[in-house]
Specification:
This protein is of the alpha/beta class. Helices cover 39% and strands 15% of the residues. The protein contains eleven helices and ten strands. It binds ligand PBG.
Length: 330
């Protein structure tokens, strides 16, 4: 068998030098497109490292302000706050208490950074409930969709009062976007943006996050988060959230759902963000710690793949560090 020579068509021409590769690059990462998720723990004296997320901390109120200031210096686009309360109950009272840890943290960070970052708050009850579900339960233990919506509306108001620029609805209750939009508008918070976790899957890759927020969950979230088998359903979820007034839609997790992300990016009329979740972080850190993959290039490639699939912005625990690398490469 004779192998035909490539002749005139030689794709390698554009790969020959760093300058050619840089000019030919179709996708670029920029610090402004990165959002840093952070955890703040009520009643903590010292920041606490997380075993399953090496390099990530549960912050004190003080260390959180410091982390936010570093994020500003790195030029990233935003920060997403998760609160870990000292006490929990069946309805997640801490979520709507103005003195609850998440609302306090929003005020702290806004006081620290003002408008230099988009200050975002996770709008979900799971960190605040003693059963660990994202909503309140019926007497028989099922997550009660419509009763949960009332809690979300109250939580949105508490976060808006605290100064959040954007609320991130990660609970996957039907109707959550519309209810929260209406509640914000009725209270005069027309300017607070709503990020809808439109396509959020019931994923094993949230494992390390459960340590980070000291989750009380037993069982799983498969009656409200999406089935990993489903691709078409994401379009439906996005359409609903957009119709209900979502300013941004999210696909989560990212790397195992790049097909879904590409679909959503191709059709969404609003910006599409993706969340590179705790398990994605942990996998790369674990392999890198063993010397099995090159950490910096694996991190960069993973985030680039999410951008290439169509994410306009990416939530990643590497946001600040990656922004530093990008600045170095400039
Ligand atoms: C729910 C929420 C979760 C994550 C973000 N928001 C956990 C879950 O749905 O079980 C996971 C994020 C991550 O794994 O990094 N409030």
């Amino acid at each position: 068998m004779t192998i035909p020579a490539p002749g005139r068509i030689r794709p390698r021409r554009l790969r020959r030098t760093p300058a050619l590769r840089r000019l030919a690059a179709q996708t670029r990462l920029h610090p402004a497109d990165l959002v840093l998720p952070v955890f703040v723990r009520e009643g903590l004296d010292e920041p606490r490292p997380l075993t399953s997320m090496p390099g990530v901390l549960q912050h004190t109120r003080d260390s959180l302000r410091h982390e936010a200031a570093r994020a500003v210096e790195a030029g990233i686009g935003g920060i997403m706050l998760f609160g870990v309360p000292a006490h929990r109950d069946a309805v997640g009272s801490g979520a709507t208490d103005p003195d609850g840890i998440l609302n306090v943290a929003v005020r702290d960070v806004v006081a620290e950074v003002g408008d230099a970052l988009v200050v975002q708050a996770d709008l979900c009850l799971d960190e605040f409930t003693d059963h660990g579900h994202c909503g309140v339960l019926t007497p028989s233990g099922v997550v009660d969709n419509d009763a949960t919506l009332e809690r979300y509306a109250a939580m949105a108001l508490a976060q808006a009062e605290a100064g959040a620029h954007l609320v991130g609805l990660s609970g996957m209750m039907d109707g959550q976007t519309g209810v929260v939009r209406d509640a914000l508008d009725a209270a005069g918070h027309h300017d607070v943006a709503v990020l809808a976790y439109a396509a959020k899957y019931a994923s094993a890759f949230y494992g390390p996050f459960r340590e980070a927020v000291e989750s009380q969950l037993e069982g799983d979230r498969r009656t409200y988060q999406m089935d990993p088998a489903n691709r078409r359903e994401a379009a439906r979820e996005v359409a609903i959230d957009v119709a209900e007034g979502a300013d941004v839609v999210m696909v989560k997790p990212a790397m195992s759902y790049l097909d879904v992300l590409a679909d959503v990016a191709a059709s969404s009329p609003v910006p599409v963000w993706a969340y590179q979740v705790s398990g994605e972080y942990a996998m790369i850190e674990a392999a890198a710690a063993r010397g099995w993959i090159a950490r910096r290039s694996a991190v960069t490639e993973s985030v680039l793949s999410i951008r290439r699939a169509g994410a306009d912005a990416i939530l990643t625990y590497w946001a600040t560090e990656l922004a530093g690398w990008l600045a170095e490469e400039q």
